[in-house]
């Protein structure tokens, strides 16, 4: 699979050379997009910590580790930008302590199936938020930042989909069959 982040960075470098990348003040939509996405990242990081400390599956653990690493990077970049631009930061929940998955009762612990599907929903929701934010940006640097975030989340979504499909955890909608068409062989 191609490295989406490297592809984006190459395209971004070319694009930035074609623009003046003037540093106008953030408009209200850009500020709101930054604030909303940072609030989302702050809260999803808590869930990623819980998932990381709950799972026993090596593939799911890797998804959560990479997801947390990306979220931490997004948080750092947004926090620095928002401080520079004078935008107030949203509150952030405290980090969760490391725990032993076997110490959590089975009925109180998320299953690896639930953890994989939930983190995948995070990747989809984050990619959608970033696409909407990028489309509203007038400043090239802010738009490219959100496209980079989106690309990283999409790449993680593809990785999650591969793992979930391999494990039989991928929740698939029913196939669409227009009326009157022959049913495909299964």
Automatic annotation (TrEMBL):
Superkingdom as given in the UniProt entry: Bacteria
Name under which the protein is recorded: DUF3231 family protein
Organism for this UniProt entry: Lentibacillus salicampi
